[in-house]
Amino acid sequence: MSGGGFAGLTVQAARRALAARLRDDGIESPDLDARLLVGAALRLDLTGLAVQAERRVTADEAAAIEGFARRRIAGWLSQAGVRQPAVPNRAGVG
Predict the structure, then answer these.
(1) Is CB count within 10 Å lower at the N or C end of the chain?
(2) Are the C-beta atoms of residues 74 and 85 closer than 8 Å to each other?
(3) What digits encode the pLDDT tens for the residues 2-50?
(4) What is the pTM of this model?
(5) pLDDT, position 88
(6) Nearest to 30, CA basis, from 40, 21, 42, 43
(7) Containing domain of residue 56, as a range?
(8) What is the C-alpha end-to-end distance of the chain, expressed in Å?
(9) pLDDT average, residue stretch 48-55
(10) Mutual orientation of helices 59-79 and 30-42 as an angle, nearest 10°?
(11) Which pLDDT score is estimated for 77?
């Protein structure tokens, strides 16, 4: 899904779509991660996500969600051993 895939969706629908994508990619906590990522991309806390649930996501916001999603999935894949992480983790093992 490109960033444009989230554009025009409601905030709630974008969060649900991202959760489904993260679930399909094997993320262990897809609903929580989607809530945090959409919230960060839109600069909304949990209350803001609830209050603005029915508003439409803009193209710029959709691109931000997509960027966060790609980084989250890439991080998960590297932790799962699918590829080497680009930067050592905090423990210095990488």
Answers:
(1) C
(2) no
(3) 455 999 999 999 999 999 999 999 999 999 999 999 999 999 999 999 9
(4) 0.77
(5) 45
(6) 21
(7) 3-79
(8) 29
(9) 98
(10) 140
(11) 54
Whether residue 24 lies inside any domain: the answer is yes
Q: How many Å apart are CA 46 and CA 83, to the nearest integer?
A: 33
In a domain, 61, yes or no: yes
85 falls within a domain: no
What are the beta bridge partners of residue 43?
none
Closest by Cα among 51, 72, 69, 50 to 61 = 69
Q: Per mean pLDDT, which range of 19-33, 50-64, 65-79 is the poorest? A: 65-79
Instruction: Report how far residue 4's alpha carbon sits from residue 60's, in angstroms, rounded to the nearest whole number.
Output: 9
| CATH number of the domain within which 72 lies | 1.10.8
Domain-located, residue 86:
no
Helix ranges (H only) for the chain are 11-24, 30-42, 46-51, 59-79
